[in-house]
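About this split. The held-out portion is used to measure sequence recovery: a designer receives only the structure tokens and must propose an amino acid at every position. Recovery is the fraction of positions where the proposal matches the reference. Here is one held-out target exactly as it appears in the evaluation file.
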């Protein structure tokens, strides 16, 4: 019958679903619900929470400023020769497939005191980037920027370009077309990409702890605080993990299918 799966496919799908659902379910079942308000009210938790939301918000703003133009470039690169187009897409995709710790090491080598850029920053301006709050933001931008770029690129590819052509015909400059026509057309894609970008930045761990370290109130974000608490106070670690899980679920429920590029509800 159409629409029904054979039993081997159904069983494999069920196992795959269990792999995805059971770990979060175990977290929810193990959560110390009675002590949750007290755990989340601790000073160390509040510090990590404020730092995480502040840095993730700033990282998302930076990704919006840089990512939307990059998405436009990627969408227009369809007419480029094959090699440059593939190189550009690979460059944007690398942070998605690269282990975050490797990304942190690479940023440390680039912006550390002996790095080509980090050395100049220290010599010219007396600025050191690693192990600062700014390093947290940069690590979050590195890992989350592709989420925004690909969401906006998908929206740009599916947008009706006849409106852009009409505006250009009426004398609008390229910047005016992009600002007043293109951006409003792809606003849902930009919004979805920004939310996904924020969520990814909020959950960043590997690149952050490698590049920024774990200084309380300075670089110790929620994921890092949860990891460290697991060694001394498992209940606090579970409470922090549950908070991050709740944020992720709320984001996914809020996005819904119609907000995702290329998908219609």
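Reference sequence for scoring:
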């Amino acid at each position: 019958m159409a629409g029904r799966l054979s039993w081997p496919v159904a069983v494999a799908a069920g196992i795959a679903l269990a792999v995805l659902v059971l770990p979060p379910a175990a977290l929810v079942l193990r959560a110390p619900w009675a002590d949750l308000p007290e755990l989340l009210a601790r000073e160390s938790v509040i510090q990590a929470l404020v730092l995480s939301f502040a840095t993730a918000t700033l990282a998302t703003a930076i990704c919006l400023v840089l990512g939307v133009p990059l998405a436009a470039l990627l969408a227009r690169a369809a007419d480029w020769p094959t090699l440059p187009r593939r190189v550009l897409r690979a460059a944007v995709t690398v942070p998605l497939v690269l282990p975050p710790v490797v990304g942190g090491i690479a940023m440390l080598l680039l912006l550390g005191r002996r790095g080509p850029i980090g050395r100049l920053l220290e010599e010219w301006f007396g600025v050191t980037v690693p192990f600062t709050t700014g390093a947290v933001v940069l690590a979050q931008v590195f890992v989350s920027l592709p989420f925004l770029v690909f969401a906006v690129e998908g929206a740009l590819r599916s947008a009706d370009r006849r409106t852009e052509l009409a505006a250009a015909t009426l004398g609008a400059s390229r910047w005016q077309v992009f600002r007043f026509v293109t951006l409003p057309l792809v606003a849902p894609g930009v919004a979805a990409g920004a939310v996904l970008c924020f969520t990814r930045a909020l959950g960043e761990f590997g690149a952050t702890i490698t590049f920024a370290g774990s200084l309380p109130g300075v670089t110790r974000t929620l994921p890092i605080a949860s990891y460290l608490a697991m060694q001394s106070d498992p209940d606090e670690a579970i409470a922090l993990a549950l908070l991050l899980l709740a944020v992720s679920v709320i984001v996914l429920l809020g996005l819904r299918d119609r907000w995702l590029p290329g998908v219609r509800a």
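Annotator remark: The mean pLDDT is 87.
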